[in-house]
Amino acid sequence: MHKENQGWQWAAHTVMILFSLTCLLPFALLVMSSITDETTILQNGYSFFPENFSLTAYQYLWEQSALIYNAYGITFLITIVGTVVSLAITSMLAYPLSRRDLPGGTFFAFVLFFTLLFNGGLVPTYLVYTQLLDMKNTIWALIVPGLLMNGFNVLLMRTFFMTTIPVPVLESASIDGATEFKMYYKIVLPLSLPILATVGLFQGLAYWNDWNNGLIYVTNPQLFSLQNVLNRIMSDIQFLASNGELSASAGAKIAQLPSETFRMAIAVIAVIPILIAYPFFQKYFVKGMTIGAVKG
C-alpha cells in the first residue's frame, strides 16, 4: 500500500511539473520572439528556435532609455503609493462591514455591491476629476481614480474578516477598553496578512498595468507611466511603418523599425518586475484567495 501511494505521489508530481512547464512556455516564446530578427518573424512566424537572432528591438528601447527610466519611476511611485493607500481604504471600509452589529450594515453592503453593476460613466467621471478636483496633468490623476473603484476587493476582504477574525477576541478587547480603531490595527490587521497580500497584489497589478488613466487625464510626457510610454512608442512605430514616404525621408533605419519584435520586447520589460515580486506574495496569495472566497 505504501508503494502504491508513493507511485501516485510521483505521478501527481510529474503531472504538476508538466503543467508548470506549460505555463512557462508562453513566456519563453515571448522572450525568444523579442530577440528574433523582424524579417524572420514576418516570414516564418513565432518560434522557440528562430533562424536569425536580433537585439534591434532592445536597441531601440535603449535609445529611448531616458524616457523609459522616467516612466519606470512614475509607475513604481503610483504602484507603491496607490497600493498602500488603497489597502488602507479598502480594509477600513471592509472591517466595519464585517461587523454584524453595524447599524445599517446591510444597506451599505448593498450600496457597495451596486457599484459592481453600475457606474457613473466616462464623461461624468472625467468632469469630476478634471473640473471639480482639478487633477488633470498631475500625479494624483494616476492614483486617485483607482482607490475607490473596486468593490470586489472590499467584499473579498469583508468575507475574510467575517470568517477568520474570531469574534470573542474582539469582544474581549472591547471589554478591556480597546477602541474600534485600536482593535482594527492591533488585532484585525496582524491576523489578516493573507488577504492584505492578496488584495495588495490585485491593486499593485492594476496600477502597474494601468494605461487608461494616463491616456485620459495626462498629456504631459513627464507624467507618463510605463504603459503609456510603451504604447506611444508602439504607436509611433506603427505610424512610421504605415507611411512609406515619411519613413523613406527619415532614413532606412526608421523604415525598418522592428514593430513585431518590439511588441514582444515591450511585454518583456513590463512583466519582469511583476515576475520578481510575485514569489514573495505567493504563499499569502493562495491562502487569502481560499479563505476570502468563502461565502459569508
Automatic annotation (TrEMBL):
It is found in: Cell membrane. It is a multi-pass membrane protein. The keyword Transmembrane applies. Its main location: membrane. CDD domains: TM_PBP2 (cd06261). GO terms for biological process: transmembrane transport. InterPro entries: MetI-like (IPR000515), MetI-like_sf (IPR035906). Residues 72-281 form the ABC transmembrane type-1 domain. It holds the Pfam family BPD_transp_1. GO terms for cellular component: plasma membrane. Keywords: Cell membrane, Membrane, Transmembrane, Transmembrane helix, Transport. The keyword RNA-binding does not apply. The chain crosses the membrane at residues 12-35, 71-95, 107-127, 139-156, 187-208, 262-281. It comes from the Bacteria. Gene3D superfamilies: MetI-like. Belongs to the binding-protein-dependent transport system permease family. This is Sugar ABC transporter permease. It comes from Paenibacillus oryzisoli.
